[in-house]
């Protein structure tokens, strides 16, 4: 599991606004699920050592079976490091009986000033082998587009 998946997008909002969207429960439910999914957070503890449990549901499960059930991906996310307003590091563990989805993936969200906006770079390390790289990077790009739409209207 030494593969690295990533994505970058410039968002027309200041780093403080983007950072806040990374640590707001309702905001995450809105923008984090990639296209074709919706999300619900069950537990929430936004501090280093805390985290959240998110249930991602496929709108059309026939096109992409879930990791946790036919229609869902359930993920336990821990906040490994919070460095406002520059970085959020998350550890993510999928609930799955399939060993191809086992292990802890690290998601690092780096924020840097880019003119009047923020360049957001997402880097995923230790990606489980069952997650296809092209699909994962498309999902990251979709979440970044959702984040842009969310943050740019604040």
From TrEMBL:
Query: Looking at the Swiss-Prot or TrEMBL record, what is one Pfam family this protein matches?
Result: AHSA1
Do you know which InterPro entries this protein is assigned to? Answer: ASHA1/2-like_C (IPR013538), START-like_dom_sf (IPR023393)
Ranges of residues in domain Activator of Hsp90 ATPase homologue 1/2-like C-terminal: 12-151
Where would one find the signal peptide in this protein?
none
Family per similarity comment:
Belongs to the AHA1 family.
Designated name of the protein: Activator of Hsp90 ATPase homologue 1/2-like C-terminal domain-containing protein
The organism of origin for this protein: Amycolatopsis decaplanina DSM 44594
């Amino acid at each position: 599991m030494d593969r690295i998946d990533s994505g970058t997008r410039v968002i027309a909002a200041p780093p403080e606004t983007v950072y806040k969207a990374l640590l707001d429960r309702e905001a995450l439910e809105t923008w984090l699920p990639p296209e074709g999914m919706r999300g619900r957070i069950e537990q929430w503890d936004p501090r280093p050592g805390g985290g959240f449990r998110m249930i991602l549901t496929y709108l059309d499960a026939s096109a992409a079976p879930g990791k946790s059930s036919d229609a869902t991906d359930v993920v336990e996310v821990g906040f490994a490091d919070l460095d406002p307003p520059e970085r959020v590091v998350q550890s993510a563990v999928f609930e799955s009986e399939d060993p191809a989805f086992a292990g802890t993936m690290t998601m690092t969200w780096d924020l840097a000033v880019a003119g009047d906006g923020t360049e957001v770079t997402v880097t995923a390390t230790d990606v489980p082998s069952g997650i296809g790289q092209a699909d994962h990077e498309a999902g990251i790009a979709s979440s970044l587009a959702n984040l842009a739409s969310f943050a740019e209207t604040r």
